[in-house]
Write a structure and sequence with these properties.
two-stranded antiparallel ribbon, SPOC_C, RNA-binding protein 15, alpha+beta, SPOC_met, 10-stranded mixed β-sheet, 12 strands, Ku70, Chain: A, Domain 2, SPOC-like_C_dom_sf, 4 helices, 25% strand, RNA binding, globular
Amino acid sequence: GYEEYGGEFSGGFMRGRGRGRGVWHDRGRGGHRGGYHGDYRGPDYFDGHNEGGEGHDGDHGDSGGSLSGARTLADVARKTTASWQGSLILKNSAFGTKLHTLEGSSDLADLLQDENNRPLLRITQRLRLDQSRLDDVSRRISAPATATILLSLPNTAAPALPDDTSVQSRPLRNLVAYLKQKEAAGVITLAGRDGASGASAVGSVLYAFPPCVFSLDLLRRAAPNLTEETTRDDHLVVVVVRGTAT
């Protein structure tokens, strides 16, 4: 169900706003009209928010219920811990990000690594946001103890970069805009190890969703007061599905 990325990612990816079909303009379960959220701001203020969030449980995300009062992504950033910092890489661009756990285990450091144990995750495939494929992701999320939902926010600190000197650092908003335009989620096959068992987690996958009805529904699982209007800042919603430990 995945498509390999070709060579189309370039400096021109900021142009275009997508074709506006399917889930992008349907009404979501929460009554939100789909589509992307307008123009994005560059929220450098996210990087100043605390790393030791309040009411955060390492195994269950925001199990203390503190996000029930969160009304903006900045609120979510303040009330949660950044479980992982690193770079998402697409073609020759690296996008620095912090991942804040919303639901599921936050023990991700060992899993979210490349084959050289660095916090570098390369997007090699994309998932078109057709309803049937989103339904499949929803089923994987609902499986007990296998999925973690995270909020990906910009990290303006110097990102981790691969040894390849052709890879350049770019702001996360560029990746958000690109995935918006392609009406797709980025897909990463994870090469790391499960933090709990230390075993290789065969079949573990990370999905990076741009702002849309589906991703807003995922955010609202943990923070029900978020709306389309209050989630306009640059972000992705990340779903990590663990495979079978071997």
